[in-house]
Amino acid sequence: MVVIGITGTLGAGKGTVVDYIVSRLQFKHFSVRDFLTAEIERNGTVVNRDSMTDTANRLRSEHGASYIVDRLFEQAAADGRNAIIESIRATAEVEALRKKAEADPNRRFLLLSVDAPVETRYHRISQRGSATDHVDFDTFKANEAREMNNADPTKQNLAACMAMADAKLDNSGSLAYLHAQIDEILAAYKPRPDWDEYFMGLCHSVAQRATCNRGKSGCVIVKDKQILVTGYVGSPAHLPHCDEVGHLFKQTVHEDGHISTHCVRTVHAEQNAICQAAKRGIALEGATLYCTMTPCRTCAMLIINCGIRNVVCEYRYHAGAESEEMFRMAGVSIRYFHDEVLQYKNQ
User: Fold this and answer.
1) 102 is an active site residue
2) Least buried of 131, 139, 178, 208, by fewest C-beta within 10 Å?
């Protein structure tokens, strides 16, 4: 898991950096600003620069200097994806995130700072017009001065946070110039994937061979960190594929009366992987299966009976509750990269 922290001067473009990294690398975004806004609104207070600063200082004073990023990090760790935490303003927050990364070999932390000339930044926040941006130029500079230097670790200290950054971004030019800097920094910072990330990445590669576009998925089965077999969605051998002759739809009437439509031309990725193991005499007892989403009921039964003990899914399947219950009863562990239902193309 990689966590990127973003710090910088007011209006420097922290959100622009976040948007680019999220869109390019699919990081999950966690915002200190959003966290504080929710807290302010719960207290019935007007959201502005003063209330944001006061609320942040109060929370740090009451619960600890790193309280805000600790809560956001907990959310990120529960989500499991690489994360980006925007708007770090206190040195204790940087130190806390570094310690969390150092405590786990599967975690890495990178702090980026972003800056631009004050006139450029004021023009940007004037154009942005958020709840904290309706101020004149002198007030803007005064607000920033208040946050730039503080000996109290519970209060904002942007200057010190920026000095602690692993890399600095100059946002005084075009978007292309900013993006090029980000690309260069991240290209030099390529974290080694853990085993789950490694094998799930291979699932993505295997899925490229899938022949039904209603849910391209792949499967990799491993044991002792060695790949045993792979499989992808495709028709049985010697039969036509969806991408050649189209889908073969069947309707299912469920107990509650609703009707769902499925393509039944293809064999699921998990089934194909298990069949490959059977053809080649490869025992799957005690193995771990990686797949795109919760296996269906039939796949779950096969997984249980061939002795696979662990299932790792990238996403949940909208009809996966029965499979999860069978796994629970059979003692097969299942865990998810992303605790959300996969909404795939042409679902």
Assistant:
1) no
2) 208
